[in-house]
Amino acid sequence: MDIRAAIAAERRELADLLDALSPEQWDAPSLCAGWRVREVAAHMSLGFRYSFPKIAAELLKARGSLHRMTDRCARKDAATLSPAALTAALRDNAHHPWTPPVGGFESALGHDVVHGLDIAVPLGLDRRVPEDRLRVLLAGITPRGAKFFGADLDGVALRADDLDWSYGTGTPLRGAAQDLLMVAFGRKLPPGRLHGEARSRFATA
């Protein structure tokens, strides 16, 4: 798969999804704790809109904490930029070479896919990530990565219902591959999306 082309396609598709949202949906909660849809959209385009010196300055304000920096910037930008501007930032930068601080283009694809689902899942939108993109991200799941994202997968075996894919050992946790990807990225999902004895451990209240 051409990873750069996949990233560009993902960003354009997510821009189309954002374009179709109502004002109420822009203010709805996402799967990212404490962020609405608009904060997630602002965060997704931060790497395109901020120069390296500006990021360094924001990181200094946050006393070196990447988490505090990204949270502060997402909230500030969500309050000042319109939905149209946030959507345009994603679409106009479909081919931008940005990658996260850790990882290459596979991580950039994961960033876009997961945050896109952070928006689509709680809104009940039928966002289906193409299989070739999913397989790249599923293949990249590691214990270290799961721990980084706060996913506690100890004693759990992820088993996809729609793809020939599994990860880990223990009590089976079943669901769509893209939902299990979200679990590996530390997300809790609405009840009914996952199946197995451990499902409540990975479900929202």
TrEMBL record:
Domain Mycothiol-dependent maleylpyruvate isomerase metal-binding: 8-94
Pfam families attached to this UniProt entry: MDMPI_N
Assigned keywords, A-Z: Isomerase
Keyword Isomerase among record annotations: yes
Superkingdom of origin: Bacteria
InterPro entries documented for this protein: DinB/YfiT-like, Maleyloyr_isom, MDMPI_metal-binding
Gene Ontology molecular function terms on file: isomerase activity
Family annotation (Gene3D superfamilies): dinb family like domain
NCBIfam families reported for this sequence: maleylpyruvate isomerase family mycothiol-dependent enzyme
Protein name: Maleylpyruvate isomerase family mycothiol-dependent enzyme
Source organism per UniProt: Streptomyces yunnanensis
